[in-house]
Design brief:
Layout lengths: L11 E11 L15 E9 L5 E3 L5 H4 L11 H17 L7 E5 L5 H7 L4 E5 L3 H9 L4 E2 L5 H11 L2 E7 L8 H11 E12 L1 H6 L12 E2 L2 H9 L3 E9 L5 E8 L8 H13 L4 H27 L4 E4 L3 H9 L9 E4 L16 E3 L8 E4 L5 H7 L1 H5 L3 E4 L5 E2 L1
Parallel strand pairs: 4-5, 4-7, 5-6, 7-8, 12-13, 12-15, 13-14, 15-16
Antiparallel strand pairs: 1-2, 2-3, 3-9, 8-11, 10-11, 16-17
Helix pairs in contact: 2-3, 5-6
The structure holds zinc ion.
Zinc ion (ZN) binds next to loops.
């Protein structure tokens, strides 16, 4: 029996079993071959504090030290960070000795935007490549995991942070409690934590089960997140939903002692969560039923396409695509290959399969592309205009499989 990552109680219900899966970013060159390790991928909900989570933890040192993900390479992400930086600078009247701390700030893309407004910055990132890139870009980076220990060092060195930013990081945390402790201790009295995370109600609505992979340990509603923050003397004061990544939540958090009430937008989202009954098992059980239906539907569609003698390639090899491919037992007998523009992945297999990853530009197009980055459907459809004019089709697997 596992213990809840949030409240520590033994009151978890397994909602969805996605089987034994590899770490979805474990790309190794085909020449090295061999099997890669696999681990349980099971989605639970705690019936005491209603925090959704996966059970198994791959050690953070495996996933977040030597990895190739660099946020600056994605145009839409750079623009997104620019907006958030502008929003923060517009709301906060920075004093001369203030600074902005970014937890898991990757290559410094977000902080570079903050720096443009003459505000001091500090990045904390465990990635070797990311810390190097950050420093090269002029964003000082502490190459460590953020937790209570590193927070104490920063506190001694730099004092308290006016803004702590954490984008796509607060649901990755193996040391959840130490990190929250660290945030509480280092956040200025009139400071804010600006957090961005996968918004669970949106994920359930879109049936986006491919957001479940080993890097994502917890999945928040504003209710479950607020409950967790409260343990550390922190409270939500604002939240809104952004369309990036298929629907993420940007929340502003401060000390409970601060004389600040909840924004209208936060109130609306909280009310909606009550209507959805996010603190009740029913919504999670229904999600699970829909996911297993999706698996059958996708497999049936793929079988039908293959029976017609058509070829299928996966378009892109994003980490979340690995969840779909492995859960639906897709392999090279049905998916010829995956094509990528990211050369780092070319020449490997999709983790856990014998589907090779090839360079998109030099690979003849198939009859059908399986679109794994479905959250960028619009953008990708534009790029595939020629392919579709010539009769090519695109299979979008989520929110329900459709052939376009
Ligand atoms: Zn719990």
């Amino acid at each position: 029996m596992c213990i809840c990552r949030g409240c520590g109680e033994e009151n978890l219900e397994m909602v969805l079993d996605l089987g034994i899966q590899p770490w979805g970013n474990h790309f190794i060159p085909i020449s090295e071959g061999g099997d890669i390790p696999k681990y349980p991928l099971q989605f639970f909900v705690c019936k005491s504090c209603w925090l959704a989570q996966i059970g198994y933890t791959i050690p953070k040192e495996i996933m977040f030290v030597n990895h190739g993900y660099v946020s600056g390479t994605t145009q839409s992400l750079r623009e997104h960070f620019k907006e958030i930086a502008n929003d923060i600078v517009g709301k906060i009247d920075f004093r001369s000795d203030d600074y902005v701390l970014d937890i898991g700030g990757n290559d410094g893309t977000f902080l570079l935007e903050v720096k443009k407004h003459d505000v001091e910055v500090l990045n904390v990132d465990s990635g070797l490549l990311q810390a190097k890139r950050s420093e090269e870009a002029g964003v000082p980076c502490l190459n460590e995991f953020f937790n209570l220990k590193s927070a104490k060092c920063i506190l001694q060195d730099r004092g308290k942070a006016r803004i702590i930013h954490g984008s796509g990081i607060l649901f990755h945390l193996e040391e959840l409690h130490s990190v929250l402790d660290g945030i509480k201790s280092i956040l200025d009295d009139d400071g804010y934590l600006v957090a961005e995370f996968i918004y669970l109600p949106k994920m359930l609505e879109q049936c986006a089960y491919d957001q479940i992979y080993h890097e994502h340990l917890v999945y928040y509603t504003l209710h479950s997140f607020g409950r967790l923050l409260m343990k550390y003397g922190l409270k939500l004061v604002d939240a809104h939903i952004d369309s990036i990544h298929g629907g993420s939540c940007i929340a502003w958090i401060t000390h409970v002692e601060a004389n600040e009430t909840q924004s209208v937008s936060l109130n609306e989202l909280m009310k909606n969560e009550i209507l959805l009954q996010v603190d009740n098992m029913e919504i999670y059980r229904k999600f699970s039923e829909r996911v297993s239906q999706l698996k059958d539907d996708l497999n049936n569609m793929i079988d039908k396409i293959r029976l017609e003698g058509k070829t299928i390639q996966a378009l892109g090899a994003p980490v979340k695509g690995s969840t779909i491919i492995n859960y639906c037992n897709l392999d090279s007998d049905r998916i010829d290959c995956a094509v990528e523009i990211n050369e780092l992945k070319v020449g490997s297999y999709i983790p856990g399969t014998s589907i090779p990853v090839k360079l998109q530009d030099t690979t003849a197009p198939p009859d059908v592309y399986l679109l794994l980055a479905w959250n960028f459907t619009e953008e990708i459809m534009l790029k595939l205009e020629n392919f579709r004019k010539l009769g090519g089709q695109v299979l979008v697997p989520i929110p329900s499989p459709v052939l376009i």
